[in-house]
Design goal:
Elements (H helix, E strand, L loop, with lengths): L2 H25 L10 E6 L2 E5 L5 E6 L2 E5 L7 H9 L6 E5 L5 H4 L2 H4 L4 E5 H9 L8 E3 L2 E6 L2 E6 L11 E4 L4 E5 L17 H11 L6 E4 L5 E2 H23 L4 H7 L12 H13 L1
Parallel strand pairs: 4-5, 5-6, 6-7, 11-12
Antiparallel strand pairs: 1-2, 2-3, 3-4, 8-9, 9-10, 10-11, 12-13
The protein binds zinc ion.
The site of zinc ion has 5 residues, from loops.
Length: 284
């Protein structure tokens, strides 16, 4: 083999190798594909888009559509197709429940056509974490958006999942969207972005003062007021048990081994609750 032929051989080998690597990474989820999405009706003008990232609330009006959250960047095309399956009107507003990429990942694409609203702390978290899609609008305590004569009330009650959580309230339908402030099963307390297991309770207590019947959680099936009330009670139980074990002088690992989830709906040491463990140990 001449020197040139040898170089060509090695180059071809390396190219094949890198293609193979790219292909296996794709297969292993190195570059995940957009998820299958489904749209479910909650009321005549209100839907939820499920699948992929966080649940999306969809309010349809004569003047256009308001979304709560927009999943991942890769989901935008499918989200818009699902919206199109129920209305021809354009998306005019997106409200983000918080900054996490599975709830605000579509922002960068949707900013071209819609006004996006986030709590000011959520926007600060977007910038701090070098995420794309910071909103042009923020609010501090409460804001109301109006579209086609319908109100979309956006409220911040304090720290919980992060320090920039919003609850979105559709008063005319008595429906709220909580983002990850309420999910099915164990929560993730994002301590790096201002989350708090202690404040969480007070925050949910204020949410429960709203006049609503139906709740869209950050992830998992749509529920009723009783579901979020039960979840709050489970959370309190978890904290009480956690503290009791900690006070007996146990380490975080020992608490993890000993704590009981009995009576708590869907709770376990999920990957995200485990990630919260060092912070929980410090806070509780
Ligand atoms: Zn989240």
């Amino acid at each position: 083999m001449t020197k040139a032929a040898a170089i060509r051989f090695i180059a071809a080998f390396l190219t094949a190798g890198s293609l193979w690597l790219a292909w296996t990474q794709q297969r292993k989820g190195g570059q995940p594909r957009p998820a299958e999405l489904a749209i479910d009706k909650i009321a005549d003008d209100l839907y939820v888009i499920i699948g992929g990232g966080g649940n999306i609330g969809v309010l349809v009006t004569e003047e256009g559509v308001a979304l709560v959250d927009d999943k991942f960047d890769r989901d935008v095309e499918n989200i818009l197709a699902k919206v199109k399956s129920v209305t021809d009107r354009p998306v005019r507003y997106v409200v983000n429940t918080h900054h996490h990429g599975d709830h605000s990942g579509g922002n960068a694409k949707l900013l071209a056509q819609a006004e996006i609203v986030m709590h000011k702390n959520a926007r600060a978290n977007v910038l701090k974490n070098s995420q794309p899609g910071a909103s042009r609008l923020t609010y501090a305590k409460e804001a109301s958006l109006y579209l086609g004569g319908k109100e979309i009330r956006v409220m911040h009650f304090g720290r919980a999942h992060t320090n920039g959580d919003s609850v979105i309230y559709f008063p005319h339908r008595k429906v709220i969207h909580t983002g990850d402030m309420f999910i099915r099963g164990a929560p993730f307390i994002d301590y790096a972005n201002g989350g708090s297991a202690l404040a969480w309770d007070r925050t949910i207590s204020q949410v429960l003062q709203l006049d609503f019947d139906t709740v869209i959680p950050g992830h998992g099936p749509v529920g009723k007021r009783t579901d979020i009330a039960k979840w709050r009670a489970d959370y309190e139980l978890f904290r009480t048990r956690f503290r009791a074990i900690k006070r007996s002088g146990k380490s975080a690992e020992e608490i993890q081994a000993e704590i009981s989830f009995e009576g708590m709906t869907g709770w376990n040491w999920s990957r995200l609750l485990l990630r919260s463990l060092p912070g929980l140990y410090e806070e509780l």
